[in-house]
Amino acid sequence: MMNRILPLLIGILTAFGVSAQSDLFFSEYVEGSGNNKGVEIYNPTKNPIDLSKYYVARFSNGSTTYTSGGITQLSGTLEPYQTFVLVNGQTTSTESSPACDPALQALADMMDIPYPAPTYMNGNDAIALLKSETGNEADALPVDLIGQIGLGSKIKSEEGWAPFTDTTITYTIGDVEYSHTITDYIIKATDDSKQAGYGPYWLAWTQDHTLRRKYEVYEGVKENPAQFNVALEWDTVSVAAEGVDEITGETYTYRKYKDIWDGLGSHECIVTDPSFKNSFDQFTNSSLSVFPTLVKNQAITITSVSKISNVEVLNLRGAVVLAQEFEPSNNIELTMPGLNKGIYFVKTTTVDLKQRAIRIVIQ
Known about the structure:
Layout: H1 7-16, E1 25-31, E2 37-42, E3 49-50, E4 54-59, E5 71-73, E6 77-78, E7 83-87, H2 102-105, E8 110-111, E9 126-131, E10 141-146, H3 153-156, E11 160-161, E12 167-173, E13 176-182, E14 186-187, E15 209-213, E16 234-236, E17 239-244, E18 251-256, H4 274-278, E19 288-291, E20 294-295, E21 300-314, E22 320-334, E23 342-350, E24 355-362
Parallel strand pairs: 7-8, 20-24
Antiparallel strand pairs: 1-2, 1-15, 2-7, 3-6, 4-5, 4-9, 9-10, 11-14, 12-13, 15-16, 17-18, 19-21, 21-22, 21-23, 23-24
């Protein structure tokens, strides 16, 4: 996976100094059949982290709270550049709720608590990683998020989130053709006009999929997005599989997306590259912040202890897509019209010629 990142990106990060990361994030998400569910958490820092300060919470069916979805406090210590795997803990089956696969549970660092619990997600639930410096759940603040909290009826009975929006899809079930327009990245459970299931296509990536955080992502989502485009920071995981045609008996190959957990327990991330890690020692102490870091048709506010004189926005290929000079100021307002959705770096130069960069996501 290392070769997916252009060498230029490493050079950019080293040259401007990206803030050393100080918190955990979700690195893998397993939403499989039955109760085959789990999440992997990654430590991108050079220090061991006390997991008892962290919680995983499920905001069920568009809820604004995790009361009905459950919350689990983690335990143990997560070493630098290592992962922690939380897996659904159900070991016996009932008529309506099957046990989690023992092969998946064998990969767990911790089994989740009984229902309701975060790892009973079914694709349309937002999953949050929360942190409390006091260890008190009531004081917990978000450090990462999968999905979008508080959508209510808009997603309550739907399947989950897709990597595309404002798109009309057409598909066939038997001899009948169906079509549906997807809005706000949400995949509905049935066709609006004909009440037909979505057939053979797994359109909701957050359901019946394993997702892996993109290699270049090195920090969590700390703000509830206006819309959740799963493809911005996540890749789907698939493996080659074989099936047998029921009519002809012939063997065929296909891509399998569900019940895949072979990669749990390790994660490749840009922070593990020696060039990236060694650059931490070169960082300046000047404080830099950008708000919001999830941007949709709006300006961002850049705040720095040292006065900023120049701002550049670069894409992941290292190309400057926007550059602007300012009268030196500690607070800069920057608008970014016409930029495509994706991950960018906001690079600032201060009057004392120090450079810093912060990652943003344009939705």
